[in-house]
Specification:
Catalytic activity: Release of an N-terminal tripeptide from a polypeptide
Domain Peptidase S53: 236-648
Largest sheet: 8 strands, mixed
Number of helices: 14
CATH superfamily of the largest domain: Peptidase S8/S53 domain
Strand content: 15-25%
Main location: secreted
GO molecular function: metal ion binding; serine-type endopeptidase activity; tripeptidyl-peptidase activity
Number of domains: 2
CATH topology of the largest domain: Rossmann fold
Pfam family, one: Pro-kuma_activ
Radius of gyration: 24 Å
CATH class of the largest domain: Alpha Beta
Length: 649
């Protein structure tokens, strides 16, 4: 969907001189962004043809960004007199819209450089200016060189530039420009390869790793002969195990008012037969129940491709979210078509119309761009603001922080803060490779990826490092232990992702907890291995079990591991808390981090003091008393957490 024209800036545009016939380059250009990482396994093939059309998007510096944490704390901290007084959509848009001066200065730069005002469009939130240019025009405008890169194994192609510049006097008015330095580093899987070598874009984010064991839990049709669940929770996690571990005991009553969203990225999709197989064994009254499909940019619950790689994530998320919140309806935020796919920004577009059409960083190198012109693609306008943000959104996907630029990450992170202001709890799993990134990749001294897990620098995840989301790590019932014994950090098959951001500063709400960890339990690593500045955002924020989940996948029961098990479980508990608050005539809890870090709320968490999160050739961090970068503040005790949130206004 094309943004609205520059109607509100008509006076500004009317005062500008007529457009010059060609692009003229200013002399006072300064580098604005450089590529976060040099591409691995991609070969620079050629300069991009001068006539190639680029959808240039100029992200304008938003207003009041320096106040976003203060504003979010005011509606989220339990001691705040305005707790729970969430913003309206209009209030959020108006608060962060760029100033008239910023719009005027950037438009003036573009038109004086030779771009006719008729070509410019201003987005609905007034946050982005868009213009389609040729590569030749773009290169002259921002002093860049666009190249085509080809993947050495698959032949997939994409474009990008190493750096770009803007006039020094304009820099303070520009957050970022797209498409430029952002590069898809992940090696495409076979289903991602564009066989005709068109520049197709696929989602960078992949599900947290789920491990399929060689031996499956025995099944006979739709029934399974499992031993009593509570006696074997160290080997097999079921709904009953989770209820016992976290004292979950509530039947929802406000299901028509409450909302719980599960985010999935196509081609990952659930199978109804799997849901029914799981329900038949563990929640018989729910047989036949299915989620409400919210199709975002052509998202489809496809059934042509089946198996663990295509159904494991979605089956897991829905089976446990449904089971723990019965009879709460579940919204399935199915994002991206089967041809192009999608990224985090695409679902953010769907819940916030002001973020849409390159709002917040939609980028052809990362995000799905719709309408999709490829054969079989979603050829309708992109899904802009089609859904009111659910009260809780659980996301079991993630990418490496180092794979994006700071500007890209910051732009998206600000959007999560806006959702918090609106009253939404956004949960992200923290990763399954300990202190390493996806696939066990670490970083060298220059921040570039190093294979084989031997890098000297830890590789934190994103978006979980954004201080305005709630990061969820993984724990386990230790072998030989019961649900009545303390859990440890997950060290079976996967290691709970955790550490410190290289991009984001420590938020106010976790300052005391993180500083206590660094002072009383200083990690045995240097600043070359992790951000030990003492002022970096630490993650995760809390944890839940992430080992040995029984999941029905493609007609068979599997044992599944990952922090992506943990996220929907925490999301289910927050949904039940929201249900109780709605029943009491109150609103949803929204952003929970400022509350769970307070001293009062510590009694509502099981402190995890065993286990670590090894990676990058090291033992990683260690679980210890209080918050730690393995399991956060610990695992929730629902029976204690509920009354604390009910006490709040």
């Amino acid at each position: 969907m094309r943004p609205a024209s520059l109607t509100w800036a008509t006076l500004v545009l009317a005062s500008l001189a007529a457009a010059a016939p060609s692009i003229s380059r200013r002399n006072n250009l300064v580098v604005h962004e450089r590529r976060a990482q040099e591409p691995r396994d991609w070969v620079l093939t050629r300069r991009l043809e001068p006539s190639a059309v680029l959808p240039m998007r100029f992200g304008l510096t938003q207003s009041n960004l320096d106040k976003v944490e203060e504003m979010l704390m005011a509606v989220s901290h339990p001691d705040s007199p305005t707790y729970g007084q969430h913003y309206s959509v209009k209030e959020v848009v108006d608060t962060f819209a760029p100033s008239a001066e910023t719009v005027e200065r950037v438009v003036e730069w573009l038109t004086e450089s030779g771009i006719d005002t008729e070509r410019l469009r201003l987005s609905k939130s007034k946050g982005w200016i868009e213009v389609d240019t040729t590569a030749e025009e773009a290169e002259a405008l921002i002093d860049a060189e666009y190249h085509v890169y080809t993947h050495v194994e698959t032949g997939a192609q994409q474009i990008g530039c190493h750096s770009y510049s803007v006039p020094e006097d304009i820099r303070e008015h520009i957050d970022l420009i797209k498409p430029t330095v952002h590069f898809l580093h992940r090696v495409p899987t076979p289903d991602q390869v564009q066989t005709d070598n068109l520049m197709r874009k696929r989602s960078l984010e992949r599900p947290s790793t789920h491990i399929k064991l060689g031996s499956k839990v025995k099944a006979d049709g739709t029934s399974v002969n499992l031993p009593p669940s509570l006696a074997n929770c160290d080997e097999i996690i079921t709904l009953d195990c989770l209820r016992a571990l976290y004292s979950i005991d509530r039947k929802p009553t406000e299901t028509k008012k409450n909302t719980f969203g599960i985010l999935e990225f196509t081609p990952q999709a659930f199978l109804q037969s799997d849901l029914d197989m799981f329900f038949a064994n563990f929640s018989p009254s729910q047989v036949g129940k299915k989620p409400t499909l919210i199709s975002i940019d052509g998202g489809v619950d496809q059934t042509n491709m089946t198996g663990f790689d295509f159904n494991g994530e979605s089956d897991l998320d829905l089976q446990y979210a449904f089971g723990l919140t019965d009879p709460q309806p579940i919204l399935l935020l199915q994002t991206g078509d089967l041809v192009e796919g999608a990224s985090f920004n695409n679902w953010l577009d769907a819940v916030d119309a002001s973020f849409c059409t390159f709002e917040g960083g939609d980028d052809p190198n990362f995000d799905g761009i719709y309408p999709d012109t490829l054969p079989g693609g979603f050829d309708k306008p992109e899904s802009c603001g089609i859904l009111k943000p659910p009260f809780v959104v659980s996301t079991s996907y993630g990418s490496d922080e180092a794979s994006v630029t700071r500007a890209y990450a910051q732009r998206q992170c600000t959007e999560y803060a806006k959702l918090g202001l609106l009253g939404t709890t956004v949960l992200y799993s923290s990763g399954d490779n300990g202190v390493a990134g996806n696939g066990g990749v670490c970083l060298d001294g220059n921040g570039n990826p190093v294979t084989n897990g031997t890098g000297i620098q830890f590789n934190p995840d994103f978006p979980v490092t954004c201080p305005f989301v709630t990061g969820v790590g993984a724990t386990q019932v230790n072998p030989g232990s019961t649900v009545n014994d303390p859990e440890g950090a997950c060290e079976q098959v996967i290691f709970s992702g955790g550490g410190f951001s290289n991009f984001f500063e420590m938020p106010q709400y976790q300052a005391a907890a993180v500083k206590s960890f660094l002072t009383n339990h200083p990690p045995p690593f240097s600043g070359e291995q992790f951000n030990n500045s003492g002022v970096a955002r630490g993650f995760p924020d809390l944890s839940a079990n992430g080992a040995n989940y029984v999941v029905a996948v493609a007609g068979e029961f599997e044992l599944v591991f990952g922090t992506s098990c943990s996220s929907p479980v925490v999301g289910s508990m927050i949904t039940l808390i929201n249900d109780a608050r709605l029943a009491a005539g109150k609103g949803p809890v929204g952003f929970i981090n400022p509350a769970i870090y307070t001293e009062k709320f510590q009694a509502a968490f099981h402190d995890i003091t065993m286990g670590g999160n090894q990676g990058c050739g090291t033992p990683g961090f260690t679980s210890t008393e209080g918050w730690d970068p393995v399991t956060g503040v610990g695992t929730p005790n629902f029976s204690r957490l509920l009354p604390l949130f009910l006490e709040l206004p």
